[in-house]
Design goal:
Layout: E1 6-10, H1 16-31, H2 37-46, H3 49-57, E2 61-67, E3 70-79, E4 89-96, H4 105-119, E5 125-130, H5 134-142, E6 146-155, E7 158-167
Parallel strand pairs: 4-5
Antiparallel strand pairs: 1-2, 2-3, 3-4, 5-7, 6-7
Helix pairs in contact: 1-3
């Protein structure tokens, strides 16, 4: 009998094709109908395997969650970009392959991302989500995130509200 192993580890440049594939499928599932189609396609196309490989070689902090030797999801994290917020770390992206969603993998990747940020000396964590992305909002609320800020972003002439969630160190 085999054992299915779960592991969270730092991404390597060789992981770029898998990360790009997850980015593509997760963004299509999460944002189709929210972000205008042409803009969504442009955003996905820009983040192909070459983009991810370059980012990883340049030191971007990306974690991957593997399940039975397959990358199930990734998180991109680092210093909080919104300096006015009282949290030093930020999870820029956390995405899973659609078939791994709703099974606890996201919680595991989120928890390990927080540990990675804390280990790097960042006190507290922020995550942004589009206000119309109900599954993401429910996920971050279930993890205990507090709504700490609002902003907006424009995609192809369409302005969408986004919410920041925060967790103290």
């Amino acid at each position: 009998m085999g054992t299915l192993l779960f592991e969270t580890r730092r991404a390597r440049p060789a992981d770029a094709p898998d990360i790009a594939e997850i980015h593509d499928s997760a963004w299509r599932a999460a944002y189709r109908g929210l972000i205008p189609g042409v803009e969504l396609e442009k955003m996905i196309e820009r983040r192909g395997p070459g983009w991810w490989e370059t980012a990883l070689r340049r030191g971007s902090r990306v974690l991957v969650l593997t399940h039975a030797d397959r990358i199930a999801g990734y998180a991109n994290l680092g210093r909080n970009r919104a300096r006015g917020l009282p949290y030093e770390g930020e999870i820029y992206e956390l995405y899973l392959r659609p078939e791994y969603q709703g099974l606890g993998f996201g919680r595991r990747l989120f928890t390990d991302s927080r540990k990675e940020l804390a280990g790097a000396g960042f006190d507290g964590v922020t995550v942004w989500a589009l206000a119309a992305n109900e599954p993401a909002l429910a996920f971050y609320r279930a993890l205990g995130g507090a709504n700490i800020a609002r902003s907006s972003e424009t995609f192809g002439g369409r302005t969408l509200e986004k919410l920041a969630f925060g967790w103290a160190g």
